[in-house]
Amino acid sequence: MICKKCGEDKDFTEYYASKITSTGLRGACIECTKKQDKEYRQNNADKVKYSTKRKRVRREYGITLEEYDELMASSSVCECCGREEGSDANSMFCYDHDHDTGEFRGVLCRACNQAIGSLGDDIVGVRKALQYLEKHTHLNDGDN
Question: Does residue 62 share a domain with residue 34?
Answer without folding.
Answer: no
